[in-house]
């Protein structure tokens, strides 16, 4: 016999079950979206870090032998363009190779009689999108040392500002990498920061040494 509550609310249990199913689907979708966003964000952070370190190191190398701000800015801009193009082409070729492999796998599945409904085509990589994202991320990172040095005439001050701006940005990028990769924040920041310092110091020192030898 039905209880008084069941008689009063005959559809309560069904409604509750439906709401729980909807909530569970929403949570799954959120987890999936977060995972996809995390992959793209992590790749963007790595690309920006690469652009920052390579461009700042190049500018420090030029600054080791030339005090002219124009030479330093032109070198940094050339590094930005060359690096962004290199990143885009490399990413395009890499992702296109992955796409060819996955398309070949889809073709093999069709040959063994699998229907189109059983083949997931939505997850296929996009080479053009990956190339543009890599180039953009590299450019964003490279703009940090370029903008920091653009309006400073004093040579030593300009070098110091480039190092400080690059160091601050490296700590930010290292923190983002730690959050996205669920790693320790302090260790990640120090790792990226020390790596950037080594790259800038090595480029500065070696370029200065070679510059003196050539004079």
TrEMBL record:
Its main location: membrane. Keywords: Ion transport, Iron, Iron transport, Membrane, Transmembrane, Transmembrane helix, Transport, Vacuole. Signal peptide: none annotated. One of its GO terms (molecular function) is iron ion sequestering activity. One of its GO terms (biological process) is intracellular manganese ion homeostasis. It is a multi-pass membrane protein. InterPro entries: Ccc1_fam. One of its GO terms (cellular component) is vacuolar membrane. The chain crosses the membrane at residues 71-89, 130-152, 159-180. It is found in: Vacuole membrane. It catalyses: Fe(2+)(in) = Fe(2+)(out). PANTHER family: FE(2+)/MN(2+) TRANSPORTER PCL1 (PTHR31851). Belongs to the CCC1 family. Vacuolar Fe(2+) uptake transporter. This is Vacuolar iron transporter. The lineage of its organism: Eukaryota, Viridiplantae, Streptophyta, Embryophyta, Tracheophyta.
């Amino acid at each position: 016999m039905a209880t008084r509550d069941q008689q009063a609310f005959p559809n309560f249990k069904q409604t509750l079950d439906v709401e729980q199913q909807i909530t569970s689907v929403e949570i799954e979708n959120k987890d999936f979206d977060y995972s996809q966003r995390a992959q793209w964000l992590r790749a963007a952070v790595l690309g920006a870090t690469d652009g920052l370190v390579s461009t700042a190191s190049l500018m420090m190398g030029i600054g080791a032998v030339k005090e002219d701000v124009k030479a330093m800015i032109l070198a940094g801009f050339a590094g930005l363009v060359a690096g962004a193009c290199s990143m885009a082409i490399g990413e395009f070729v890499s992702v296109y190779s992955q796409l060819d492999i996955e398309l070949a796998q889809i073709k093999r599945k069709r040959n063994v009689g699998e229907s189109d409904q059983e083949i997931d085509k939505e997850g296929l990589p996009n080479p053009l999108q990956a190339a543009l994202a890599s180039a953009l991320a590299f450019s964003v990172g490279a703009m940090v040392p370029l903008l920091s040095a653009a309006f400073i005439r004093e040579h030593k001050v300009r070098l110091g500002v480039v190092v400080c701006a690059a160091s601050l940005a490296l700590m930010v990028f290292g923190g983002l990498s730690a959050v996205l990769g669920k790693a320790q924040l302090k260790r990640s920041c120090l790792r990226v920061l020390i790596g950037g310092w080594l790259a800038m110091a090595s480029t500065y020192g070696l370029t200065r040494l070679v510059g003196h030898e050539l004079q």
